Amino acid sequence: MEETLMYCDQCQEAAGGSACTRVGMCGIDPELAAMRDLLTYVTQGLGAVADAMRGTGTDEERAKSKAVPHDVNRLISENLVMTTVNVNFDAAAVRAQIAKTIARRNELLSAGSLESADLPDASRWSGAEAEYAEKAKTVGVMATEDADIRGLRSMLLIALRGIAAYTLEADNLGRQDGEIEMFLASTLAKTIDDEVRGGALIANVLESGRYGIKAMTLLREARSGRYGTQEAIEVDLGVRSNPGILVAGDSYRDLEQLLRQTEGTGVDVYTYSDMISAHAFPGLAKYPQFAGNYGGAWWRQKEEFESFNGPVLITSDEFTVPRNTYKKRVFTTGMAGFPGCTHIADAPEGSEKDFSALIAMAKTCEPPKEIRRGTVMTGYGKEQLIGCSRQMASALKSHDIRKVVLMLGSDGRAKSRSYYSDFVKALPDDTVVLTAGSVKYRFNDLDLGETAGIPRLLDAGDCADSYSVAELMLTLLDNMNYNDVGLLPLYVNIAWYDPKSVITILELLFIGMKNLHLGPTSLTFLSRGIRDVFVNYFGLKEIGDVDEEIKESFGERGDAVTADMIVGDIVAKFPELIPVMMDAGLHCLGCGVSQMETLKEACEVHGLDPYDILEVLNDELKHPDEAQG
User: Fold this and answer.
1) How far apart are CA 23 and CA 471, in angstroms?
2) Helix, strand, coil % in the chain, rounded to nearest 5
3) Fewer CB within 10 Å, N side or C side of the chain?
4) Angle at 555 between CA 552 and CA 559, to 5 degrees
5) Range of weakest confidence among 34-48, 417-431, 553-567
6) 295: left (phi over 0), alpha (psi -120 to 50) or beta
């Protein structure tokens, strides 16, 4: 058995489908992994201190409490982001953050009335830097022996990192939310509290979906408040003749400052990967040097940063180990970092970061090499999606649109992710695809045309915009007079990779969506037992063969019932089919277990051919009078 030098399970690419134990697939080494574990640990301790400082009142009272200073809440979010996959590769920077966190926590303990004896070790440990490596061996994911508890704690920490990515960006734009800050602190404390066990941890995991929604909403309001309402826009994929700067990550505030500082310099600014959604905001799109989107999904950056020729600014995540050939052109800011790359420091409050070094370098560089041409649409945010909800609901009722397909989440390197482009290409032409996140780079350049007067591909933006997609589903629910989101003709497909895609999963589960298709692998951090809980209670499924899934879930054009529909949903939506199903041999429709099975699964249990049954059921719906005769 190979020696375990590290343990990291927070992304889909974890080695062996479980965890990286010798070196990270992303490029982190055991020393950096250990420092990230220790930073997570002292942040859990800071969370416990902040939670105790809020007192024992109601959640509403605790959320409104001013006992915890703003900088402490921000520090918690910063640390969660810094320990997220593909953000910071600089062990020295992480060590400095550990020291900063311990010092700030000790200030709180010295100034307050908290009894340190009542706090966990993570809230009290104050080792010197020389002790970091030894202490790191005793903390981290594997410090929890029980596999089920370990998996749930991992999922919670990953979900909290996803929430923190949004709250930190909102904070950069001047917006905070006391409820989210309270949840981050209190939930961090629970991840090191041995009294909080399985059922309570599962409840906290699901509750994180609620706070993910709040964080996404907070960020959307912060962005629209500063830059105007998102507008659907065509974004250029080509290049101009000027030298350029490429911006990746989340931070629109950094992008805004860079755009302001490049005005009149002859330097163009391009977005990379998920940052493409920034073009949809009028307050950013107004700059004439805001050129377009360069390249594809984040994981292609080794080749695409090379061909860009100019400096690259990494503002948060979506960062991989740079090649030496272009490393000197990579600048980091915020919580991102890499040894040997210039880091742009935060500016004093009320002033801007200094991006003059990037601009000066850009002027010495060749213009970007063209690697793509044409345009893609993005920016179908909440207002645009809700605006077409009545038209979409009408088309669904008339079966002019067969199903709405949600394709959400993040892209990655795995070859199996070609599934997502193959799936979209194979969809019937009477379907509409709603997407958000970098998974769209698998298919956003396809010309899918329209159906029922609606574009078949609607890109809401980055992962934070996935809740705008969910809000459209809730609006359709009202427009179609349904009382359960499960009755909507949906197919939900999530490409998971990192904390942002995990919080997207939990957000959808929180609003009642089930039968989510996940891929390209199962959730690496969950034990088999906990994974079964999510499969059995929420219908989570792994993706499979494209042709089989299309046949099972979409059937023939105009079919209202498909093989992957839950029996209980069919009964609720089409009560007239109850006698037809019973006559066909499905005699246990009143059984609670059968109500949770798909039609295909129910047929298999009774030895029936699901596609023969489908033909009978859909024929009944299309020709009820003939069938009765």
Assistant:
1) 40
2) 50, 10, 35
3) N
4) 135
5) 553-567
6) left
**In the Cβ-directed half-sphere of 619, how many Cα atoms lie within 13 Å?**
11
| pLDDT at residue 412, rounded to an integer | 94
- Per DSSP, the three-state class of 433 is strand
Q: Which token pair is 377? A: 């649409």
Name, in order, each residue with C-beta under 8 angstroms of 288's C-beta and a sequence gap of 6 or more: none
Measure the CA angle with vertex 207, ends 474 and 440; round to 5°. 55
Residue 569 pLDDT > 90: no
Query: Which of 193, 207, 164, 166 lies closest to 51 in space, CA to CA?
Result: 193
Are 409 and 439 contacting, i.e. CB atoms less than 8 angstroms apart? yes
Convert the pLDDT of each residue in 479-514 to its tens digit.
998 888 888 899 999 999 999 999 999 999 999 998
Most distant pair of Cα atoms in the chain: their distance: 85
What's the rounded mean pLDDT across residues 136-142? 94
- Which residues, 6 or more positions from 433, have their beta carbon under 8 angstroms from its beta carbon? 405, 407, 424, 427, 443, 448, 456, 457, 458
3-state secondary structure 155-214: HHHHHHHHHHHHHHHHHHCCCCCHHHHHHHHHHHHHCCCCCCCHHHHHHHHHHHHHHHHH
285-329 tens-digit pLDDT: 999 999 999 999 999 999 999 999 999 999 999 899 999 999 999
pLDDT at 596 over 80: no
Who contacts 171 (Cβ-Cβ below 8 Å, separation ≥6)? Answer: 74, 77
Q: What values do phi and psi take at 272, rounded to 5?
A: -125, 135
Structural tokens at position 390: 């009545």
- Encoded amino acid at 126, one letter: S
Angle in degrees, CA 170, 171, 173, rounded to 5: 65
pLDDT in tens, 13-35: 999 889 999 999 999 999 999 99
- Please give the radius of gyration of the chain, using alpha carbons only, rounded to the nearest integer: 25
Give the pLDDT of residue 16. Answer: 87
Distance CA 506, CA 95 (A): 31
> Does pLDDT of 627 surpass 70?
no
Tokens of 484: 């359960």
Helix (H, G, I), strand (E, B) or coil at 595: helix
Instruction: Look up residue 579 and give its amino acid.
Output: P
- The closest alpha carbon to 313, from 372, 370, 261, 251, belongs to 251
Burial 185-202 (b: 16+ CB within 10 A, else e): bbbbbbbbeeebeeeebb
Distance CA(613)–CA(580), nearest Å, equals 9
Residue 218 corresponds to which tokens in the numbers above? 């907070």
- Average pLDDT score over residue span 439-443: 97
pLDDT in tens, 525-568: 999 999 999 998 898 999 999 999 999 998 877 788 898 888 88
Q: Could you give the CA distance from residue 40 to residue 193 in angstroms, rounded to a whole number?
A: 14
Query: Model's pTM, two decimal places?
Result: 0.93
Number of Cβ within 10 Å of residue 71's Cβ equals 10
Residue type, 223: R
**71-85 pLDDT, tens digit each:** 999 999 999 999 999
Structure tokens at 403: 């199903």
